[in-house]
Amino acid sequence: MKRAVISVSDKSGIVEFAAALAAKGYEIISTGGTASVLRQAGINVIEIEDVTGFPECFDGRVKTLHPLIHGGVLYLRDNAEHVATAEKYGMHSIDLICVNLYPFKKTVAKQDHSLAEAIENIDIGGPSLIRSGSKNYRFVTVVTDTEDYSSVIENMDSQGNVSAELRFKLSAKAFAHTAAYDAFIAEYLAKAAGTEKFPKQLTLTFEKKQELRYGENSHQQAAYYTKPDIDTSCITAAKFLHGKELSYNNIGDADGAVAIVKEFDKPVCVAVKHATPCAVSLGSDSCQAFIRAYNADPVSIYGGIIAFNTIVTEECAAEINKIFAEIVIAPSFTDTALAILAKKKNLRILELPEIAERVKSDTEFKFISNGLLVQDKDSGGGFSDKTCVTEVQPAPESVEDLEFAMLVCKHVKSNAIVIAKNGCTLGIGGGSVSRVWAAESAVLRAGEYTRGAVLASDAFFPFDDVVKLCAKAGISAIIQPGGSINDNVSIAACDEAGIAMVFTGIRHFKH
Length: 511
What we know:
Helix content is 37%, strand content 20%. It has helices at residues 14-23, 32-40, 48-52, 67-74, 80-88, 104-108, 115-120, 125-135, 149-159, 164-193, 248-261, 286-296, 314-320, 335-341, 396-409, 435-446, 465-473, 487-497; strands spanning 3-8, 27-30, 46-47, 96-100, 141-143, 207-212, 222-226, 239-242, 268-273, 276-282, 304-308, 325-330, 348-351, 363-368, 371-376, 387-388, 417-421, 424-429, 454-457, 477-480, 500-503. A hairpin with a 2-residue loop joins strand 17 (417-421) and strand 18 (424-429). Helix 13 packs parallel to helix 14 (335-341) and helix 16 packs parallel to helix 17. The chain is elongated and about 95 Å long. The model has no long low-confidence stretch (mean pLDDT 92).
């Protein structure tokens, strides 16, 4: 007779699965709460201690950690010496392991949990059983995911037993399961212990949220993964209200739009195209902010991502519906606004109540071939130590615009230039290999509105060519990090042109 060990924290579907196994002649060995649930459902259960001859102890810390359990799982059925040893010590074969682990993630997600509570929810016996069974996959089936219950039973029905192919796939899945579980625990404990920011070994785990139709291009396969402990202020926590399924590019662009929204406390509208801001504007409410952003770049906003940090009103929704947009993201929508936007069946509408909150993580990652780069997030604008280095001081109304322009500039691909006025971008130039080319692009987009506007640069000016361009365009003030050996040349050019220049001392490259 075949035997199965069943010990699960998530008991959804377990009665039906155990009943199906029992109907196929399996003896069910179980522990504690799982055994109680199965017995109440009328399923015959053998307690672990009836197999081991040793009672559960230490509040359940020790129950399956016994040679009669692990020996029955691990011995090789086609090895005569192993078979003889198993018979000698009374080790009956265990052919199926159904285990899901203590809810460590759920425990630490509670705001009021203690470290002691977290430690008690670190599973020991479960991972050990899973690893033992997975190592001996040629003879043992290991099930760790409730979604696999039906496929295992269906496979038994069609094959007479669980096929070697399915056992191998479940083994690989099981090792991934325990690896992710341990990685999450390691990450949590590292934070709790206050260990170094960049440890010798970095453990990360992500869970698949959904399959995607394709990646950046239609010939690329793709999927969407998220951290198990989702930050509720990030795009991963957004509620999908309406529209087509999100694509790979949609998700990346939306993440960039949300990051820019977080820079501002006043009502703001952020329009992003190809992961780059094309228009950003402050306003008295979402409607005014959107209209100003649209007027700043009515061409590039077409087919873009539009994000807000305040409620989208009926008036705002009506204005948005005049154009084609891929996504609208906001902390909330009025019922009427949502109804108006939903008239466009393909428009994706995302609700993210905590969109304005700062991201909890202070690190960010960049994957490269066979490697991973990790760094602090580029937080803040560096305005506390800003210094005017020219004879001309920026006008009071320009000071806020300088800071506004630099906050947007942080999110533009380097080399990055942003021209702004009255809390609204006029021209954005980014991703150029030459800073003056980026400035020329921004000036061209701003057109006649450059007169009296301000300009922000993500890095210093190595020459005075950008200053001379600003003088021709009528730019009134410039903000940049400073730090070039030619700073004096740029300062002199500003003084000659009557342009105020402010140094922040902080560079904002975005590669």
